[in-house]
Amino acid sequence: MAAKLVLEEETFLEHEYEGEEEERSEAESVKLDGDEVPAPIVQNLHCYEYTLALVKPHAFRHVEDIEQTIQEKGFTIVKKKTFKFTPEQAAEFFITREERDPVKVPRLVCYMVSGPVRVMVLAKQKAIRRWLHLMGPVDPDKAKRIYPLSLRAKYGVNDIMNAIYGSRNEEEAARDIRFFFKDIIIEPSNAMESDISCEPSSNSFLAHKIYLREFVYPTLQKGLAELVRMKPAHSYEWFVNWLLENDPFSPKLKPCELVKIPN
To answer: Per the database record, which ranges form the Nucleoside diphosphate kinase-like domain (predicted)?
Structure first.
């Protein structure tokens, strides 16, 4: 599986970008300030594929040029922010993503905490494969030989300081996005209910499942267990009221006594 992944990641074919201009007209590039998401992103963004892009510390000074290249290739930057890894965060993020080369992880963690990074959620049809293509091979020297127009060929130094990180598959993209943008819910595609003809991406469903598993299911399980224990006469109404009273995202207000102010 790993060999197949490397082979696919390093199959850089220029003809994959034929028709980029037509796709770009469907997904106008959007510039964002900080963490903000614009109200209208693109009308048919719901049926696009999503991936995570990360600009590494030494390439951070080129972030504006990199973002311009991303947009020129027809990607929509859905959300972005500047981030500073702690050693614990860097280890957590990269240890499962570098399982093929565990010796590389300590060097990578030390490097990733050396400065700020820019993380972006990108949207485009076949976004994952096309972002891997635009990044280029992991080794910048190889990138310069095989695909000199790639971002790693332009800004990379070595296999650690190779300028860019990108999600390698749909499951990893969903996990990466949730790591940096916990407020993002990538909704399941409703392309079947619209006039838009495009292939929905399964990684939107993966992100949706992750959100449900982390934030919804624990509360539901606790409420259902309490329902079984209490055995109320009107179970539906009781359960609705219990959910309202135990919503983990609602502020917890303690009742207070009214104090009469003397005249």
So the answer is: 48-188
